[in-house]
C-alpha cells in the first residue's frame, strides 16, 4: 500500500512524534509556530480530513478519547510505528528529490501573451509590491523570534525564494517597460501561424 504524501500529512505525523495530541492542539501548534506558511490549514476541516486519512492508513491510531465538562469530546491520536517509518521515508524523499509541483504563477506566465505588454507590466508590478510587503512582514516576524536556526530553516528558504522571485519579477517588469520584451497581435499571429 502506497500512502499519498502531503505537507499537512507530514506536519501531523511530525507533531505526533513529539507526543500524542488531539486535532485542536495540532492546529494551535501550527499557528503558534507559524507553520501555516508551510502547510495549508486555511480550511479548518482539512486537518480533520488528513487525520482521518492517516488513521485509515494506520499511520496514526486513537490513543484515547476524553471529554471535559462543558467541552466537546476530544480524540487524542498517537503515531504508529508504520507512521514513523512513513514519515522518515517522506522526509528523506522530500529533502533529496525535487518534486514536480504545479504552482499558479508559472502557469500564468505561460499565458502572458494574452495580455497586452503594458497590462502585463502593471500586473507584475502589483505582484512585486505584494512580494515586497510579504518579505517585510516575514522578516519582521522572524526578527521578533528567538529560536535556534534549526527551527527557522524553512523560513530562511521561503525568504530566499521570495527575494529571488522579487528580483526576477522586477527584471521582467523593466524589460516590459523598456520594450526589450514585447509582443502584438500581429506578431503573435505571425509567430503562431494563427489569425490575429
Question: What can you see in these coordinates?
Answer:
Residues 12-87 form the Transcription regulator PadR N-terminal domain. This is Helix-turn-helix transcriptional regulator. It comes from Micromonospora tulbaghiae. This protein has helices at residues 7-18, 23-32, 44-56, 81-96, 104-110, 117-143, 153-178, 185-192; strands at residues 21-22, 60-66, 74-79. With 196 residues, the chain is mainly α. Strands 1-3-2 form a three-stranded antiparallel beta sheet. Strand 2 and strand 3 (74-79) form a beta hairpin. Helix 1 (7-18) packs across helix 4. The N and C termini lie far apart (52 Å). 14% of the residues are buried.
Q: Provide the spatial order of strands within the biggest beta sheet.
A: 1-3-2
Distance between the termini: 52 Å
Which word captures the global form?
Answer: elongated
The number of distinct β-strands equals 3
Main sheet specs: 3 strands, antiparallel
Helix percentage range: 55-70%
Order of helices and strands: HEHHEEHHHHH
What amount of the residues lies in strands? Answer: 5-15%
Number of helices: 8
Rg from alpha-carbon coordinates: 23 Å
Low-confidence stretches: none
Helix-strand makeup class: mainly alpha
Oligomer: single chain
Report mean pLDDT, rounded to a whole number. Answer: 92
Pfam family, one: PadR
Protein name: Helix-turn-helix transcriptional regulator
InterPro entries: Tscrpt_reg_PadR_N, WH-like_DNA-bd_sf, WH_DNA-bd_sf
Domain Transcription regulator PadR N-terminal: 12-87
Amino acid at each position: 500500500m502506497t500512502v499519498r504524501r502531503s505537507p499537512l500529512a507530514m506536519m501531523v505525523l511530525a507533531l505526533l512524534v513529539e507526543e500524542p495530541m488531539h486535532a485542536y492542539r495540532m492546529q494551535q501548534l501550527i499557528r503558534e509556530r507559524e507553520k501555516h506558511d508551510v502547510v495549508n490549514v486555511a480550511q479548518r476541516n482539512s486537518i480533520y480530513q488528513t487525520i482521518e486519512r492517516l488513521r485509515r492508513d494506520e499511520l496514526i491510531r486513537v490513543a484515547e478519547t476524553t471529554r471535559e465538562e462543558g467541552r466537546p469530546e476530544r480524540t487524542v491520536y498517537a503515531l504508529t510505528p508504520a507512521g514513523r517509518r512513513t514519515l522518515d521515508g517522506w522526509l528523506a524523499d522530500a529533502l533529496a528529490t525535487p518534486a514536480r509541483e504545479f504552482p499558479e504563477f508559472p502557469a500564468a506566465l505561460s499565458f502572458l501573451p494574452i495580455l497586452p505588454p503594458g497590462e502585463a507590466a502593471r500586473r507584475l508590478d502589483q505582484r512585486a509590491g505584494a512580494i515586497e510587503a510579504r518579505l517585510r512582514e516575514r522578516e519582521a516576524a522572524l526578527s521578533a523570534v528567538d529560536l535556534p536556526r534549526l527551527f527557522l530553516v524553512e523560513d530562511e528558504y521561503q525568504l530566499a525564494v521570495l527575494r529571488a522571485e522579487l528580483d526576477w519579477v522586477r527584471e521582467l517588469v523593466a524589460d516590459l517597460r523598456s520594450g526589450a520584451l514585447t509582443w502584438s497581435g500581429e506578431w503573435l499571429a505571425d509567430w503562431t501561424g494563427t489569425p490575429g
